[in-house]
Give the backbone structure.
Amino acid sequence: MKISIVGAGYVGLATGVGFASMGHSVICVDVDAERVRKLNRGEPPIYEPMLEEHLRKALEENRFEATTELGRAIRQSEVIFICVGTPSKSDGSMDPVFIEQASRDIGQAMKDRGGYPVVTVKSTVVPGTTEGVVIPLLERNSGKRAGAGFGVCVNPEFLREGQALSDFFNPDRVIIGELDGRSGDTLHQLYRDFKCPILRTDLRTAEMIKYASNAFLAAKISFINEIGNICKRLGIDVYEVARGMGLDRRISPHFLNAGIGFGGSCFPKDVRALMAGRGSWGTSPGSWRP
Ligand SMILES: NC(=O)c1ccc[n+]([C@@H]2O[C@H](COP(=O)([O-])OP(=O)(O)OC[C@H]3O[C@@H](n4cnc5c(N)ncnc54)[C@H](O)[C@@H]3O)[C@@H](O)[C@H]2O)c1
């Protein structure tokens, strides 16, 4: 399949190199010209085990290219992944600025093409963003209707930094949020060789699965730290408690290590974004607008 990746950062690069290694034809688009030059020389701007080897092989076999020319990439792709960053605003809510720009640019580029390209949001976005922000910008800038002139999916990413490629090739699950069956079928086809459950949902359910997963893992880490504080006062070894708890299959030993708490590039920002949105929850479905 012909794939475009818009945003060649951590997620975009792992996804692009991963699909190229599986035999697909991938064009990674980024606004950072230096990043693009490096990628075309086979030099990943981040370190991940096996990333450089897979990138170089994909370049040699002409299955991977990086570019700043979004239009050319979009016009020839069947699936277009949006993988740009979704940083926090000062109040903790998600800043959609990069998502908005990417949606405008992709919409413009889709203007003069036919077919049914499936625009797929892989960035972590708060529930309602794809319907409330991405689709309107794509429609306005392309002059086409979602579900008629192009398809839309949400396909959240669960990879861990440091294991990005191995997580790409061996995910626990693939979540496909779909605007319509045709969009979902196209993405399902792309993931058909993955040996894991593939769950198909609507767009906002897929967006929420990502936030709920990260919030749950962050809560699990915070929980064992709270237990650790109690253990300390009682002279109990929290690591032994965690081992005893983790043997219960309903609990599992993962993310049950007492320590400095949760961190990294995603957990704090995603938990804050979920909390920032909670005041906007209404009583009717769909009333939380990003
Ligand atoms: N890093 C992770 O471990 C991880 C894991 C799962 C999900 N995510 C989510 O995936 C998304 C991307 O995260 P990341 O860590 O890869 O971000 P990143 O900052 O590493 O990469 C984003 C890239 O997008 C490029 N970009 C920005 N605007 C652009 C545009 N209009 N057109 C083309 N390129 C553009 C930037 O130059 C940058 O290279 C975020 O929503 C993040 O929350 C990240």
Summary: The chain has a mean pLDDT of 95. DSSP finds eleven helices and eight strands in the chain. The radius of gyration is 20 Å.
